[in-house]
TrEMBL record, chain A:
Keywords: Cell membrane, Membrane, Protein transport, Transmembrane, Transmembrane helix, Transport. Coiled coil: none annotated. GO terms for cellular component: plasma membrane. This is Uncharacterized protein. It comes from Nonlabens tegetincola. Transmembrane segments: none annotated.
Length: 161, 206
């Protein structure tokens, strides 16, 4: 009988926190591996829409990024609130798209040039008009492979309020 | 002399250090999206040389107030995939235009075969990008649905699985017969339902 009584004795045992560092490290490593440092600082709003039929982007070295959206709060004084194009780090005009794409493409190896791809990161609330102008420039620059970068998900959610 | 033990290092603050690092990474990093819809633009000054009969064109118009018009009548975006599948899979042609793998209604008023069928997407300049992308996504879904079906019938695996296999193929093994076979399979399925989704210049729609 005394065996059972012993267990009932008094205080709660302290919960061991010895494994806490391990748990935190695990989280830490997850975030370190899963995150990619942003290459360009964004000057435009860039809330990407969802799409279901997505494919993964190939090697980052073969991709040129073009951002389209409203200038963010810091930039609105200078650029207004209409949709603009951001190439690299700064907001540019649509006419500079060709130059930008050609510069990027010329840095690539000759045998990889036909794998060159343009990733269009367009804010979900932008208008199609400016995107069309950019696409026309891309066609003129013979950068024909484009990618409408979007998060994976059900695209019907884009238009539901 | 008493045996001296090395003093134990106090690891109590380890958690704090790790937390600090963790919070730093949480705050500084944003997970960048690296997925998207792949499309190919047409070449500059590429005008359609031959006129396409009306029955082979599936006209989708996205208006400036984000409404969808299909073949002249309004439609909900939810229904556009089913409707596009019915159009692509119709197989109404006869003679050398017969489509022997189509499972559609074979309506002579609709497309002859998937090779002839063209989906034309026209959007207004004032259309919202999210609506435009949703419509594009739903139309590509129609193509992929049909390709999945054909891949399942011919190779007992889905088109999506084939594409994934191609993507994950080791880079140093791109000339092996297995890879060429895989590529051949994908091309075969794509030939059955070529993605003829044309985007004309957005126009002002009255």
């Amino acid at each position: 009988m005394s065996k059972f009584k012993k267990k009932k004795s008094g205080d709660l045992p302290a919960i061991s926190t010895a494994s806490l560092p391990d748990i935190v490290f695990m989280l830490l490593f997850f975030f370190m591996v899963a995150t990619v440092m942003r290459e360009n600082e964004l000057s435009v709003e860039n809330n990407l829409p969802l799409a279901g039929e997505v494919e993964k982007l190939s090697d980052k070295n073969k991709v040129a990024f073009i951002y389209i959206g409203k200038p963010n709060e810091k930039m609105q004084k200078q650029f207004g609130t209409n949709d603009v194009v951001q190439l690299g780090d700064k907001i540019s005009s649509v006419k500079q798209v060709q130059d930008y794409v050609n510069t990027k493409r010329n840095k690539m190896n000759e045998d990889e040039k036909d794998e060159f791809l343009v990733s269009l990161k367009v804010d979900r609330n932008s208008k199609v008009g400016i995107l069309t102008d950019v696409k026309q420039e891309l066609r003129d620059a013979y950068a024909l492979k484009v990618n409408y970068t979007s998060k994976e998900g059900n695209s019907m959610k884009n238009i539901k309020k | 002399m008493a045996k001296r033990n090395a003093p134990e290092v106090n690891a109590g603050s380890m958690a704090d250090i790790a937390f600090l690092l963790l919070i730093f990474f949480l705050v500084t990093t944003t997970i960048e999206t690296d997925t998207g819809i792949l499309r190919k633009l047409s070449k500059p000054n590429d005008t359609p040389a031959v006129s396409i009969p009306e029955r082979n064109i599936y006209q989708v118009i996205v208006t400036s107030d984000n409404q969808i018009m299909v073949e002249g009548s309004p439609m909900e975006i939810e229904d556009i995939t089913t409707s596009a599948i019915a159009f692509l899979d119709n197989g109404g042609g006869s003679g050398n235009k017969t489509c022997n793998y189509c499972q559609g209604e074979r309506n002579p008023e609709s497309s002859d075969n998937p090779d002839k069928a063209v989906i034309s997407l026209v959007s207004d300049r004032q259309t919202d990008y999210k609506t435009y992308l949703t419509v594009t996504d739903q139309l590509i879904k129609a193509y992929n649905h049909l390709r999945d079906r054909e891949a399942l019938r011919l190779f007992n695996t889905s088109y999506k699985a084939l594409k994934l296999e191609r993507q994950n193929w080791p880079q140093n093994d791109l000339n092996s017969p297995e890879f060429l076979e895989l590529k051949r399979k994908i091309e075969l399925v794509e030939d059955l339902f070529p993605g003829k989704l044309s985007e004309a210049e957005p126009v002002k729609i009255e």
